[in-house]
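Incident review: delayed structure delivery

Summary: a single-chain prediction request sat in the queue longer than the usual turnaround. Root cause was a stuck worker, restarted by the on-call engineer. No data loss occurred. The affected request and its eventual output are reproduced below so the record is complete for anyone auditing the incident later.

Affected input:
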Amino acid sequence: MFIGQRALDFIFALIGLIVFMPFLVLIYLFSKLIIGNPLFIQDRIGMNQMRFKLIKFRTMPLDTPNIPTHENINIEIHPYGVFLRKYKLDELPQIFNVLFGHMSFVGPRPCLPSQKKLIFERESKNIFSIRPGITGLAQIESIDMSNELHLVSVEQQMIKNFNLLHYFKYIALTILGRGRGDSINL
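Output delivered after worker restart:
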């Protein structure tokens, strides 16, 4: 990635928390009323294969299996969760992951510890040498994690060519609604 990316992430995460705190609180309270347990916290694999707790707003029932979305053929998303996902509001709590240094705003999507084939492929291509991101080239190109080889190839391409312009471009495209990054049609 580029020199100074962590500093930009930290500054933008701090600003983001200040700006979005009222929305985070409102979504949290509204989610608590509608869904019950508003936060979804899951182990993910980050930089140098260190585990961290990814934080999102819950969009699925509490008893949803802890497997990658593309492997869950009976996916059930709460109608309120559809709204959160459509506007990417479910991802707002990841600002905390960025602030604490577990993630970047831009990088490869963090994987689950159970995704052994993806972990192997990423390890062989040195993808774990950088922080995972909330968004990245694979997300804006709507590439999910079901084809590990293709995903890792795109991640390699992103890392190889990444610069400050790409950082802002991928964030802007995500905000503008480009790409889903998963196999759920909302």
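Verification: Strands lie at 39-45, 51-57, 104-106, 133-135.
Action items: add queue-age alerting; document worker restart procedure.
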